[in-house]
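Fold this sequence, please.
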Amino acid sequence: MEANLSFIRGHVEEGVALGEIGLDYKIKVKKELQWRVFEELLDIAFESNKPIILHCRYSHKRTFEMVKEKKIEKAVFHWYSGSLDLLDEILSRGYFISATPALVYSPPHQEAIKRAPIEKILLETDTPVSYQGREARPKDVQVSLGEVARLKKLDRSIVAEQTTANASQLFGVSFRNKAA
């Protein structure tokens, strides 16, 4: 564990964010160990002023509380499917959530995306995870885009422009249009 944390500390400046980090209460790893490692990673993110990409399977509330306690300013809650009350707290702190191809079949994820303003949503694929027996690929971001557009009743181009601007804002990077 210490070797991994040392490696991350030594290379954190090479990336635009620290992630995917967080808590996963479905896996068989003691919660106390997860909390300790996550706390160390949050310290690294805070010290380096890097945004974080959060994994919080069955641990939304505890993940949020730890992020808040560490005064992390920039975060995205990956594939958010927790309670809508907690989502409101997450959004009120200025954090983002991400939309994945799971929008095709996950009612909790759909409700979160419907509730969040488009200005607080990012698109992703969660590659190489499998969705309903099919391994996701980077091109599947188009699935995420289409589902967000459908749920928000917005044109795909508006969703694409806004979520790209959101990613640029969160990660501090500029995306240029290939056609330009």
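Helices lie at 2-11, 31-48, 60-69, 84-92, 107-115, 141-152, 156-171. Residues 31-48 form the longest helix (18 residues).
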